[in-house]
Amino acid sequence: MSIYWNKRVKNLSPYVPGEQPRDRKFIKLNTNENPYPPSPKVIEAVQKAVNGDLRLYPDPDCAAFREAAARRYGVMPGQIFAGNGSDEILGFAFGAFFESIYADGPPLNAKTADVILFPDITYSFYPVYAGLWNIPYRQIHLRDDFYINCDDYRIPCAGIIFPNPNAPTGIPVPLADILSLAECLETQGRVLIIDEAYIAFSAQSAVPFINEHPNLLVVHTLSKSASLAGMRFGYAVGDEELITGLCRIRDSFNSYTIDRLALAAAAAAVADASYYDKINNRVIATRERTAESLKNLKFNVLQSAANFLFIKAPKISGRDLFCALREKGILARHFNKEKITDYLRVSIGTDEDMDEFIAACEEILNRI
Q1: Structure pTM?
Q2: Is residue 159 located within the same domain as residue 267?
């Protein structure tokens, strides 16, 4: 550690992204990217945006995108927040809606009404953000079958966040349970953040209910469903007071978090729902076919409403399967965490990618 780091930096455990190899060509099934290209209308919009206006700052209000997204979801532009990827928005949300503590405050995982709640197996950026903002938190255990039980969250707390479907399991949470939880939190004056990064792949979105629940913030990304992981764009939908809170945090860092090309791409993407419905339905079909093939090989395959599968192989550890697949030129994601160490998260690629993955799994198992 550097002597120049402050205590905050020294105490952080930063998020570790999925491997992005440069040394050889892999079938990349480790970062949940969409296997299909963006809409042609998105490419056209970006090409048109490459002009002399790049000398000018982008629109800090992201008006064109917010209007396009508002039309898509039947809400007001003031109920849309745009950010440089959903991760940025989540970071802003932690700062805007969850209370920080000072050094003499309660420890992390304190069991008081001052802590925020999220699952013990979930998106691993949540504890990172809590540490960055010095927010106390408590992790709620998933059920033995890896499902989120919303009843476990109906306790005094400082706010709640979880993905739907959850990551890395892919298991969806019933929408009725989410709305009931939002109502419960509203009586406490607390915010419920639903991270819908994978909502396009089968689960029911909470966006249509933001007007009924002013404490409900729904966060989306264009990285997965819109094939724009390389463009870095996310957005949140919620009550205008929540959106204003996000803007206050953003504008305390940088009023221009989104460039002109990303804004053009995002506006075109949310306007072309028919194209994305088509390719994402292909992903869903491939996911279901892959799940059946893995079950035939005696894998334990969790229910998934995402663009990935969470799987456990027979006769081999998760780490060993990860390494064996990598040797064959296939990348998956392994999480070195006690409850899930024997599982891999496998992104859904093209049909050809998944055929190679299944063949590799079968060959590895036959060698044992």
Answers
A1: 0.94
A2: yes
